[in-house]
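During data preparation, a discrete fold description was generated, as reproduced here:
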Amino acid sequence: VLGVFGFGGTGTIRDNRIPKSCPISKNSMSKERGKYKSTISRENGLIVVRWFDNSVVLMSSNIHGTESVSTVRRFSQQQKKFIQVPRPAIIVNYNKHMGGVDRMDEDIARYRVGIRGKKWWWPIFTWLLDVAINNAWVLSKKSGSTYTKLEFKREIASTYLTKKPNTPH
């Protein structure tokens, strides 16, 4: 069943966006890697899935479900080896079709500008810097650069921090 306008969608959601009456609340799950719970809304056919990987992942979709469950290879700190972790189909499909905004958020989160300020606009400003740097890094990768994201940010910082000799005007 597709959504109201005939479109399907899958995405991550926040805990505070699902109703408290939802049967897959925070405290209803064990913290065992690979475990998941799901529920389907009778009103609109949305499926909500809570999956535990390194942390809890909460997803919703009107086109993908949990079947068929596949496995993914993860490193276990407790066992000190790679293990196979069950992963619902909704997660597989989301990762397969994850688009630009999700990739950008993932890239930005990896090396976020960590300067705190008291002005309301400061987080917006630092986010804009992160977005600009991320876009520049993506463009440089497309033009053949082999810099990692960290190397790229370090190169920018060192360029701005390097003292340039005064040149006559």
